[in-house]
Structures are given as structure tokens and as C-alpha cells.
Amino acid sequence: MTPSRMVLQRSGMETLEELFRSRVNAFLGRSGLSPTAFGKKALCDPNLMRQIGRGRSPSLRTADRILAFIAEQDGASGGGRDPPRRPCDRRPTSKQRTRRRRRTMTENPMEQKTNPPIRFLRLPEVMERTGLSRSTIYVRLAEGRFPRPVALGGRAVGWIEAEVDEWVRERIAESRFEGERAGERGEAARGIRRAAEAGPVR
Fold this sequence. Notes:
α2 packs parallel to α5. This protein has two domains: about 80 residues, no CATH class; about 80 residues, no CATH class. It contains ten helices and three strands. Strands 1-3-2 form a three-stranded antiparallel beta sheet. About 5% of the residues have low confidence. The protein is mainly alpha-helical and about 200 residues long.
């Protein structure tokens, strides 16, 4: 049963609105809250009590929320002064959501890493990073063994920095893998040679 209907059943003589107003006024007297502070804490509406005082009748849903707030604060503070503040349940405005997103992007570096800025490298930078000559780069492009450039307008082209760096890392990994395999093959060959030199086992 909702708080407003419980109040209604307490008396057959008084109307729901009269009982509602008496409950609110009694709480304001106990808590010492001003009408503006009460409206702001109960429904995030500082003009609530002013509008009710001007004759606005609250809906059953609004009355239920206000009476539930009073019951909650009475239970939390024992009817004392300055009950704990209730967070507002209003939806944030579009400006507030934009500010939150910007603040999150600034405070959370992992989110920034998911969308890093794209930077283009011109041919001299690509040659410097890879150690390849101009002709070798274009030969490997034709063979499909090098990242393709992006047309930047006119005759200008550029390579995506992240793709070039990834290509360099792959070459490093391949080189180290081949080096390890070559070392294993060399060790095996030396073992066979030593075994041959030692002669047959008797």
C-alpha cells in the first residue's frame, strides 16, 4: 500500500490533500528544513512547496514520492534536524553529458588508446624507419609485402604510421625466430659432427 493511501485511510473526515499538507508541515517543523530545501531534497524541485502553497494539488505519484521521502528521512534521522541529503534523480542535460564524456576521456588514458590519432609518414620517413631504399619499398609494394600508401591528394601519398611500425615489429619477430631456428640447426649439426668424430659406440 502506498504512503498516500495509508494517510487517506487514517481519517474519513479529512481529504487526502489536507492530510498530505499536515504531514509535510509536521516534517518541516521537525527537521527545520526550509520549504525550498525540502522541495529540492525530496524531488529536486526547489519551487515545489511554493507551487503547492499557491493551490497546486500534487498528483498521487508526487504525493507518494514526497511521503516516502519523509518516511525515509524520519527513519534515517529519528526525526532530527538536517536529514541526510537525497541525490537528485533528474536526467543530466546534454551539456552535462558532454562534460562528463570529456572528463572521462581526460581521466581515462585507456579509453584514449582505443582511438589513437592517425599520423601519415612521407616516403623519407618510411625509408628512415625501415632502413629500406626507395626502390626496395616499391618492389615490395608490387609484391604485396609492404603496407600500401594512402592517397593524400594530388600526387602526394603517405603511409599510416601504425601500419609501418607494425610491419617493422613483424620483421623483428621473424628475424629473431629465424635466428633461433638457425641456432638450433647449428647445435644439431655440431652434435652430429661430434658423434661422428667419436666413432662407433662399443
